Amino acid sequence: MNLADLSCLTPAGSTPLSVNPRLTQAQAELTRPLSVIDETGQSRTIRIPAERGLTLYVDKRELVTLMTLGAHPEWLVLGYLLNQRLIGSVREVESVTVDWDVGAAAVRTRDGIARIEERTARRVVTTGCGQGSVFGALMDDVDRIALPPEARLRQSQLYDIVNTIRVHDSTYKAAGSVHACALFVDNRLLLFVEDVGRHNAVDTIAGWMALQADLPRGERVFYTTGRLTSEMVIKSAQMGVPVVISRSGITEMGLHVAQRVGLCAVGRATNRRFLCFANAHRIVFDELPVTEPVATA
Amino acid sequence: MNLADLSCLTPAGSTPLSVNPRLTQAQAELTRPLSVIDETGQSRTIRIPAERGLTLYVDKRELVTLMTLGAHPEWLVLGYLLNQRLIGSVREVESVTVDWDVGAAAVRTRDGIARIEERTARRVVTTGCGQGSVFGALMDDVDRIALPPEARLRQSQLYDIVNTIRVHDSTYKAAGSVHACALFVDNRLLLFVEDVGRHNAVDTIAGWMALQADLPRGERVFYTTGRLTSEMVIKSAQMGVPVVISRSGITEMGLHVAQRVGLCAVGRATNRRFLCFANAHRIVFDELPVTEPVATA
Fold first, then answer.
1. Which of A161, B130, B175, B256 is least surrounded by CB atoms within 10 angstroms?
2. Domains of chain B (ranges plus CATH)?
3. Nearest C-alpha of chain A: how many angstroms from B16?
4. How far B282 CA lies from chain A's nearest CA (Å)?
């Protein structure tokens, strides 16, 4: 998949993408070599993921520093602002300019962000990896989220998705120590994002989604390598994704939110095993194991 | 190990523990049952870790909400304040009162915290799990940390530690989805703490350590199931622990800090394998594998 084709960064004159923000396409190395000593006392070279600070300035006001792998900083910035509810649409942003030399992302909005001091004042340190600081009243919005009641996940789909992730080329395979998130529509992988903090990964997907004029219709499924924490579940629901699959387990807050918004939360998904923690009515069991008849000797 | 014996919460009249803060000993369930549907379509009951909000009020001023498992909230609060450098010693705190009914921890200080607004203003969202929001200039303090240059870790010790963790009874074994941290002195496990956010786990250990009048002398080693992020490495160094062992890998910032403070960072430690990412001179290879002579047929 060629992501460059999809990101469509303000082609001059076209509508409605012409109201998308102007974005740089800052590049950075995603891994670096490191000489280590192993248990035999020998030196060898491995790769570790990069991790760099990206300080966000919104209309020249410093907002936050995100620690990130650096694969898609512009989408990350947009997704961060969206998921923190600091903007309602990417169209409120005129431009995002990332400069890795100084580790800065300059966001210029069209009309400013109202009451930004007040809205970034409440501090909650949450359980999820990375981006622990969720400004303000994310949970207050939960009850306004309406996920499509008819959305279903077939068991065969679930197995396909887990397998697609398994064989996908990744920084994780090269260097470990990153989390991956992925967006599927009708089992087609639309975007695969890794980051040192997994909330960066989901924010990056949110930012990318918001830039798309025509996201394919169909069953949206979100995959994450990380735990199903409250933040992960809330963010999925905010992106209109009714099914989340994780390799890991669920936290109690994640469970509460999933139950409350009607999100189907599937965890411990490896090979052909999984557990559905909430809203199992969304799963269609089309690949139940065939019970072998007991051989009579 | 009976932790109650060690926590010594202000026994009347004794010195110097009598200047320790008064602490409640709030109790909470650490896991809860959950009915799930597995891949066969059958219902079964598993346990998941609890996750509860604990809002810190310092001298009646709301500071932060931590999401926590709830095993040792008072030590967590003290460790949080210490590791955020909001207090320099637990003796600055008169009392910590945790009430799970309202999810609140009321901290009363002896003399207030100077410039608390200013010192909690800078926001960095870091990579580590949980507690991403490190207020202010943690990194500014790094160069003041002096770890004992002579501290060493024997390979046999490392294997013992990994094995002690492996066989330790835990919420992880019962319910998954938590991170563990543990403090060893001369290979004796002093404290094992789990939390939904692993920075809570290390803060809890820091809080507990600060309450001890006589921490045994000897080689301090810190174990964590999580990645060696910058926060994890900084906090270990702040606790005077020169060796950290992880089941996971390292991030680039974690590596930078470990190199800068002379901390021996060991990762990918499972069974008898490991990688030393930084300061391998601290490892004494006393269990190198014996090379089998090649059999001549």
1. B256
2. 3-137 (no CATH), 153-284 (3.40.140.10)
3. 33
4. 11
How many Cβ atoms are within 10 Å of A286's Cβ, its own excluded?
Answer: 11
Residue A41: closest CA among chain B residues belongs to which residue?
Answer: B285
The pLDDT tens digits for B164-185 are: 999 999 988 888 888 999 999 9
B129/A127 CB distance under 8 A: yes
Amino acid identity of B37? I
What separation in angstroms does the CA of A121 have from each of A26, A115, B8, B218? 30, 10, 37, 43
Residues 6+ apart with CB under 8 A from A285: A155, B41
User: How many whole angstroms from its chain centre is CA A114?
Assistant: 26
Question: Order of strands, edge to edge, in the sheet holding A104-109?
Answer: A22-23, A93-99, A104-109, A52-58, A61-68, B123-125, B133-135
Task: Give this prediction's pTM.
Answer: 0.84
DSSP state of B71: S
Contact by Cβ (8 Å): A71, A30: yes
Q: Does A260 touch chain B (CB under 8 A)?
A: no
Q: Give the length of chain A.
A: 297
Q: Is B190 helix (H, G, I), strand (E, B) or coil?
A: strand
Contact check, Cβ <8 Å, B125/A66: yes
Asked if residue A48 lies in contact with residue B255, where contact means CB atoms within 8 angstroms, the answer is yes
